[in-house]
Design brief:
The structure is a single chain. With about 350 residues, the chain is of the alpha/beta class. It has 2 domains: about 120 residues, 3-Layer(aba) Sandwich (Rossmann fold), CATH 3.40.50; about 190 residues, Dihydrodipicolinate Reductase, domain 2, CATH 3.30.360. It is built from 9 helices and 16 strands. Strands 15-12-11-10-6-9-8-7-16 form a 9-stranded mixed beta sheet. Helix 7 crosses helix 9. The longest helix has 20 residues. The radius of gyration is 23 Å and the shape is elongated. It starts with a strand and ends with a strand. The structure holds nicotinamide-adenine-dinucleotide (NAD). The site of nicotinamide-adenine-dinucleotide (NAD) has 24 residues, from helix 1.
Length: about 350
Amino acid sequence: MKHRLAMVGFGGMANWHYDLIQRIDDLEVAGIWDIKEERREYAREKGVHVYESMEDLLADESVDLVLAATPNDVHKEIAVRAMEAGKNVVSEKPVTLCSADLAVMREASERTGKFFTVHQNRRWDEDFLTVKNVLAQGKLGEVFRIESRVHGSRGIPGDWRQEPEHGGGMVLDWGVHLLDQALLLFPNEKLETVYATLTNVTNQLCDDGFTADLGFANGIHVLVEVGTSNFISLPRWYVLGADGSAVINDFGRDGKIICATGINEGDVVPVITAAGLTKTMAPRREDTIRTEEMPWADSDIRDFYKNVMAVIEGKEEPKIKLDEVARVMRLMEAIFESAETKQVVKFEA
Ligand SMILES: NC(=O)c1ccc[n+]([C@@H]2O[C@H](COP(=O)([O-])OP(=O)(O)OC[C@H]3O[C@@H](n4cnc5c(N)ncnc54)[C@H](O)[C@@H]3O)[C@@H](O)[C@H]2O)c1
């Protein structure tokens, strides 16, 4: 069955969707609507049909799927209108700005019977899937801490991402991806505690970075950090277990796993520093550690839309479930609350 998708908003991300969809069987772009003439003109030049208006787009009976790819504050209105017009909807992330708005969107989906999901595309990030493989392999022994970071050095990009009324800021922008991933590392564990700090280095109105310590019921702490004033980047992932450590440096295949061999080191040779000596922080002798192969994962982001089409056809369950999306939204709210009150928030304790 062929599906036809119309895009509302044709900025940077919609353009990415457009190019992706050219590589997906049974899915085609019917056209776009954007409030900016320059983006409509860009679409025409690209050979994409441009609707006269949002109403014109929604009236196209050949369209069964609408993508909301506007600034974050407009997703709700577009999604609700599209579902009421009989369309299934994919919203870009973050789904909207708060849990109350998400409830309105979910209610529209239930009322109209239309499928509604969110483009949490970074579930297909190969670095994230590799960390899941590392945990599943169990070679690190009992894992006690995971750190997940993205670092840039140009502040908040663009225009609306700098403005609270449009849902700007890094918690909603990158946080929504990293927090979604963090919750999926232990999908059946309660997240008991959240402690967060925000940064406002380049922007006083919206957070331009944050750290969040997530304390799970299994005792594992996950540190999530987004920074935009980091001229030296720390690794994308750092995973610590009782018997080994793993590091993944970036979004590609650059990383390593070091595990203890179990050979007793005997008498550790201390490191002499300028002001003293330490055995505790001395490096391992080579025969007491070994490098393990990283279980690199492969993914195909086209599977997102293939799943959307299969759900519409009644053949599959959604890969991105609205309960998961709602949990991430509550977590982002807990992060703002923790940063505001300077307190640990009891989340699902
Ligand atoms: N999933 C990802 O990896 C990813 C990456 C980047 C952006 N995004 C998301 O995609 C969305 C768009 O981001 P972007 O980077 O493309 O922004 P952008 O500013 O490049 O594009 C947004 C477009 O929406 C248009 N627009 C605004 N209000 C509109 C309305 N009411 N009706 C129709 N068009 C309207 C603007 O004119 C603009 O062309 C955001 O929600 C963002 O968070 C997701």
